[in-house]
Amino acid sequence: MINAKIIVVGGGAAGMMAALFAAREGARVIVVERNEKLGKKLFITGKGRCNLTNAADADTFQRRIFRNPRFMYASFAGFDNEATMRLFESLGVPLKVERGDRVFPVSDHSSDVIRALARELERLGVEVRLGCRVQSLVVEDGVCRGVALEGGARLGADAVVLATGGASYPSTGSTGDGYRLAEETGHRVETPHPSLVPIETRESWPATLMGLTLKNVRLSAWQRGAKGEKRIYSEMGEMLFTHFGISGPLVLTLSGLLPDDLSAVRLAIDLKPALDEAALDARLVRDFRELSRKQLSAAMDGLEPHSLGMQLLVLANLSPAAPIHSVTAEQRRALVRLFKAVPLTPRALRGFDEAIVTRGGVSVREINPSTMASKRVAGLYFAGELIDVDATTGGFNLQIAFSTGALAGKSAAKQGVEA
């Protein structure tokens, strides 16, 4: 048995997994968690259902990571999505796979996932200290020797795993403590930004459609640059209008790909992606002919929800009360172009309070991807959202937390006994 002493700072997804794997290696583990319970953020993931991973193949997994996917090779190789599913099944949490290969507990209760991890930590003899906040890391001669707690107490250790989370959902305790602790020990932190978050638009008209969900539409984004405009995103799926702009799965994914400077970005919604302009124009010609004696609003009601149809007419400078037979061919073609590319301009991303994950964090250049060990401070390891790696929705970010946590815990236990 290893019998090294490991401190894990943070009792979320990455921290609990790090503690579990360190303890399974035989280490004596203490989890220091500032909240009153473990897994507070894990509890609200997947709208409380806990989309704990994704059943996609390895290539798909890599493609769904926005930043630094190559950094994840070693941790995925050691503990991938299939291993995660096997672990939870072995801990008494039966799983199911839903649309988009998203994996959930059969019970649809995130609390079952948290309880299973907590039971296993207890079985392994892991000490959990709740309501306990780390003030600083204790580093002597370039080696992390433990942590200093708020109030002055110190805990010594052979190795420390920093798994404090990012800055998203600060109400769950993710207030950026980990960034400060990393910077204080000389680590570079890439500026944190909200990711997987709704988008505010410069246009105010989305507020008139608040709550309206669009399904099977295509959302695209382009960015202007010195060499012209390039498309940075184009996907089909679901989105919705809000009082400030747009949200929904397509929008959340797009938010993770947008540059810091939104002034050079334009968006477009294709409301009829299954039809090209010629086919859609032929559809309008047929509808207009059949409804020629009615108002234009009647034709729109056959194509889109009433509120959206009326807004499209406003954007096209057409009156809903206009007789259909009065619409010119050019006006009809302009309406077709609008159906295929409803323009929107992003103004800002919503804040960390609404962000699912954090973009940015401890630079991967300062972390050994084969062990999750710091390249600057011996005996210090990183795991989870604190690291500058993030992915799209669908269970990918939790898998990053589980994989990096497992590798950090295992590595810390082995390094601790060698020290």
CATH topology of the largest domain: FAD/NAD(P)-binding domain
Supply the CATH class of the largest domain.
Alpha Beta
Q: Structural class of the helices, strands and pairings?
A: alpha+beta
**Main sheet makeup:** 7 strands, antiparallel
The overall number of domains is 3
User: How large is the radius of gyration?
Assistant: 25 Å
User: How many individual β-strands?
Assistant: 24
Let me know the CATH homologous superfamily of the largest domain.
FAD/NAD(P)-binding domain
Instruction: Tell me the distance between the termini.
Output: 15 Å
Poorly predicted runs of 5 or more residues: none
**Treating each run of at least 4 consecutive H or I residues as one helix, how many helices?**
12
**So, CATH architecture of the largest domain?**
3-Layer(bba) Sandwich
Helix content percent band:
25-40%
Please tell me what the overall shape is: elongated
Estimate the strand proportion: 25-35%
What average pLDDT do the residues reach? 94
Q: Trace the largest sheet across and list its strands.
A: 18-17-14-15-16-13-19
Annotate the secondary structure layout.
Elements: E1 5-9, H1 13-24, E2 28-32, E3 53-54, H2 58-63, E4 65-67, H3 73-78, H4 81-90, E5 95-98, E6 102-105, H5 110-123, E7 127-129, E8 134-140, E9 143-149, E10 154-156, E11 159-162, H6 177-184, E12 189-195, E13 199-201, E14 213-225, E15 228-241, E16 245-247, H7 249-255, E17 265-270, H8 277-290, H9 296-301, H10 306-315, H11 329-340, E18 342-344, E19 346-349, E20 357-362, E21 367-368, E22 373-374, E23 380-382, E24 390-391, H12 396-418
Parallel strand pairs: 1-2, 1-11, 2-7, 11-23
Antiparallel strand pairs: 3-6, 4-24, 5-6, 8-9, 9-10, 12-20, 13-16, 13-19, 14-15, 14-17, 15-16, 17-18, 21-22
